[in-house]
Structures are given as structure tokens and as C-alpha cells.
Amino acid sequence: MHERLIRTLQIIDKHLGKNEKWFQYPEQKAESFNAEIESWDKEFSLRAAKFEAVMDELEKIME
Q1: How far is the C-alpha of 16 from the C-alpha of 54, rounded, in Å?
Q2: Within a 13 Å sphere around the CA of 5, how many CA atoms are in the beta-carbon half?
Q3: Which superkingdom does the taxonomy of this entry point to (predicted)?
Q4: Which of 30, 31, 35, 44 is a good FRET partner for 21, with 20 to 30 A between their CA atoms?
Q5: What is the pLDDT of residues 5-49, one digit of tens each?
Q6: What is the distance between the alpha carbons of residues 2 and 6, in angstroms, rounded to a whole number?
Q7: What is the chain's Cα-based Rg?
């Protein structure tokens, strides 16, 4: 009986470890997604700034 209890507790511990791994997975994905979004945002902001500069120059030319 004692051995069976130990075995059951080992199985529970194993499954809790697996659950913890799966709980961490979305957090890791969110971190990589946020890094990707920040990179995209920087690139977009640079392009938008360049576009605005061109539009400002065109506006000056048209005046």
C-alpha cells in the first residue's frame, strides 16, 4: 500500500510538471509575439515618418 501511494504521488508530480510546462507556453509565445510586434511597429513608424516628410515637401512645393 505504501509503495502504491508513493507511485501515485510520483505520477501526480509528473503530471503537475507537464501542466506547468503548458502554462508557461502561452507566456513564452506572448513574449515572442510582443517582440515581433515591437519590431514591426518600429519599421512602420520609420516608414510613416518618411512618408510624412515627403508629403510635407509636396505641400510646400504646391504652395
Answers
A1: 58
A2: 2
A3: Bacteria
A4: 35
A5: 999 999 999 998 888 888 888 888 899 999 999 999 999 999 999
A6: 6
A7: 27
Q: In which region does residue 14 sit, left (phi positive, over 0), alpha (psi from -120 to 50) or beta (all else)?
A: alpha
Grid cell, residue 32, equals 515572442
* Length of the chain (residues): 63
Check: pTM over 0.85? Answer yes or no. Answer: no
Residue 17: all three cell numbers together:
510538471
Grid coordinates given for 34: 510582443
Amino acid present at 16: L
